Amino acid sequence: MSSQNNIYAQVILPLKLKMGISYLVPSQLEKRAVKGAKVRVIFARREYIAVISELTDNCGDYKGRISEILSVEDVPAVSEKELRFWKWCADYYMCTVGEVYRAAFTSAMRRDSAPKRVRKQKPSEVDSRELYQLSPAQEQAREEIMESFAQGKPALLAGVTGSGKTEIYLKIAKEITDKGGRVLYMVPEIALSRQLNDRLEAVFGEMLLSYHSGMTPAARYSAYSKIDSTPDGEGFIVLGLRSSLFLPFRNLDLIIIDEEHDSSYKQTDPAPRYNGRDSAIVLGQIHSAPVLLGSATPSFESLYNCSSGRYSLVRLDEKFHGATEPEVTVIDTIRESKAKRMNGLFSQTLLEEIESVTGRGEQVLIFRNRRSYSPLVQCSVCGHIPMCSHCNVPLSYHKNRGELCCHYCDYHIPRSSVCPECSEPGMTEKGSGTEMIEEKIREILPNARVARFDAETTQSKAEEKRILREFAAGKIDILVGTQMISKGFDFKGLSLVALIQADSMLAMDDFRANERAFQLLRQLSGRTGRGAARGKIIIQTSLAAHNVYEAFSSGEERLYEQLAERQEFGYPPFVRLIKLTVRSADRNRLSDAAARTSMGLGKIRSAEITGPFAPVVDKVRGEYILQFWIKLPRAGNAAAKERIAELAEKIESEIRSVTIVADVDPQ
């Protein structure tokens, strides 16, 4: 073949590459090497599966030897819609298309992950007829949602906890799948996905596909393959987490984003550092698919989009089956301590309420958003606190393992009562975690059946399901849990929720701290009082007069008035925020890189720069950290983002062992 007739393929490799890489298409592969095809190529002496992004009759200005494509994979090509979505993710979240492709190219795409045997699932015991029969209030909300879809707008369903938002989701989704449509149903965490699975299976049967990182590679491959190969006209619904956005959808007819306010939708590492909620909106636009967001505590960002006319706001203020809002009690622990009414971690009022509730055969949830026995240990003689040798954080004490552990890098050492600094036996626990609370409540109430639900006790999928199943069946009286238990779970026998050391929610160095605390309180209150009896939530705090607690106790939406403050001081959602993190194991190189970054950022006129500054945890996994906060206008910021990315790339190339990471819309 003459060089004039050559066909060249520009490909996307699953690597962080800014430049385009081209390969020669052999004549025998020309018919199969189409745009989007997955092909095997050699790059830097390694074999990769790449995706053809463009076909041309030349290789540009490159004069060297062009390698040939080795083969074309016998799998469906990546669609034009997928490529558009990858490109948008790369542009908006300031990374390369290769990094986006790497996020999509999981073990689920590899044929060697295919399951040898598919086990049949047990039939669900849930009555599908009860799942999506709507009350008049729910039906009214559904009609408003459909009207919003007809206008081409996403709809935000702001329904109080226990109002039956899930039934509305299922009703709308079932109407679509019955007509051969495809639905993506997103939830923020695996535990919520597992609980919903049975409910959705009762309605959708074999049309239900689940997809998340907690599944085996074989199970993910099975779901991926079914989505990739299902012919047009056959409907299905995918229940997944944020990663499900990168599944090979040919067409989508509805996207549901449950608990849209949840920060778990944000990917932190590695790139792309995308927000699943915001990316789902764009994916819906690409597929011309309506998007339904739902939450009992909508995010400020979504409320802003409603007020600006981008979304439609649909309210559902009536609880399903006429349940009432829980009674709220705020206990001032400082006052209780002075009155000698504190029994260790618990106020006497709380203990009396727990005994009363369990005595009636009802259940209690004790919330503490910190796993471990205690956040740190300290020598009572010399004051020494054992720190992680790789991160600038105290080691947390895990009593059941007898270890001090770092929650950032998993470094751990045996726990000793003897101080390594002064050799005195003075090491004592400071603060409390779920493990300590579980132990103390067992000591105070020895006859109660107590269990713990946190990242440590739920490492096993089977153990997680066992705890949830037994609590739902009333076989556990008191469940001690972290934030994992606050979302979406439906426990009929739960009538009391108690928050221990609630002020830790407000102690975060984050302009969203009050918003997040209010959302968490609302979510926790929604777990109680779902049966016939009215629920109760007790908050133990040393800041009883804080406006978050006052707003929550009154049942008012006053906290959302802070949107005006966000606008006044220039915070999201009124501006775009980028967190630029500079990392290096060498402090001198870090300082040099930060100084040059500061100088370069100062030349971007549309950017408001804060930094460099050291974050609260300024060393992680052996690398020191400095950060910048960059505020940009909401619109017209593409050029500024491109300059920031170019600056970071230039400094990384000039100063060895320095990494600069841009996190757009950080959470």
Describe this protein's structure.
This protein has 667 residues and is α/β, with parallel strands linked by helices. It folds into four domains: 1-78, no CATH class; 128-320, Rossmann fold, CATH 3.40.50.300; 323-371 and 433-563, P-loop containing nucleotide triphosphate hydrolases (Rossmann fold); 576-664, Ribosomal protein S10 (Alpha-Beta Plaits), CATH 3.30.70. It is built from 18 helices and 30 strands. The strands form seven sheets. The protein has a seven-stranded parallel sheet, sandwiched between helices. A six-stranded parallel sheet has the order 13-25-24-16-23-22, with helices on both faces. A five-stranded antiparallel sheet has the order 2-1-4-3-5. Helix 14 (513-525) packs parallel to helix 15 (547-554). The model is unreliable at 111-129 (pLDDT under 50).
Topology diagram in text:
Blueprint: E1 8-12, E2 21-24, E3 38-43, E4 46-56, E5 71-72, H1 80-92, H2 97-104, H3 128-131, H4 136-150, E6 155-159, H5 165-177, E7 182-186, H6 190-204, E8 208-211, H7 217-229, E9 236-240, E10 254-258, H8 276-287, E11 291-295, H9 300-307, E12 312-316, E13 327-332, H10 333-338, E14 342-343, E15 346-347, H11 348-359, E16 363-367, E17 376-379, E18 396-398, E19 403-405, E20 412-414, E21 427-430, H12 434-444, E22 450-453, H13 461-472, E23 478-481, E24 494-499, H14 513-525, E25 536-541, H15 547-554, H16 562-569, E26 576-584, H17 587-601, E27 608-613, E28 619-620, E29 623-632, H18 638-654, E30 659-664
Parallel strand pairs: 6-11, 6-12, 7-9, 7-10, 8-9, 10-11, 13-25, 16-23, 16-24, 22-23, 24-25
Antiparallel strand pairs: 1-2, 1-4, 3-4, 3-5, 14-15, 17-21, 18-19, 19-20, 26-29, 26-30, 27-29, 28-29
